[in-house]
TrEMBL record:
Organism field: Microcella putealis
This protein's name: Transposase
InterPro entries: Transposase_DDE
The Transposase IS204/IS1001/IS1096/IS1165 DDE domain, residue ranges: 6-104
Pfam families according to UniProt: DDE_Tnp_ISL3
Length: 122
């Protein structure tokens, strides 16, 4: 009654299938699941899943690169870039570059001990 055409269930199953690509023990198995996602999502009758499928197909090379490069991701770089961009927007036009740089370093958490590299034991 709340989901008469089982769209929520199908969307959840699609989500689980996509998620499982990243949780396989071997990257080659994950790539197989990812390839199945690429071949099936764009034909889904649920518009949002079909759009996701078309987007993943458009980014096929980048999507599959995770499985071809040993699980390498630029997620960390993107996270830092997002922090820098948010800081830039909130800086309201700092005129002094040194102050702007310090604000970015503070926002990015360079002062937090758990974000620094571990020091080798003597």
């Amino acid at each position: 009654m709340g989901d008469p055409h089982a769209e929520v269930e199908v969307a959840w199953l699609c989500y689980q299938q996509l998620r499982s690509a990243y949780h396989q023990e071997r990257l080659t198995d994950g790539r197989v699941v990812a390839a199945r996602v690429l071949e099936s999502f764009h034909t889904c009758p649920i518009p949002e899943i079909a759009r996701l499928g078309r987007t993943l197909r458009a980014w096929r090379q980048q999507f599959l690169a995770y499985f071809d490069t040993g699980g390498v991701s630029n997620g960390g770089t993107e996270a830092i870039n997002l922090i820098i961009e948010k800081t830039r927007r909130s800086a309201h036009g700092f005129r002094n570059f040194d102050n702007y740089r310090l604000r970015i370093l503070l926002a990015a958490g360079g002062h937090k001990p758990w974000r620094t590299a571990p020091t080798p034991a003597s």
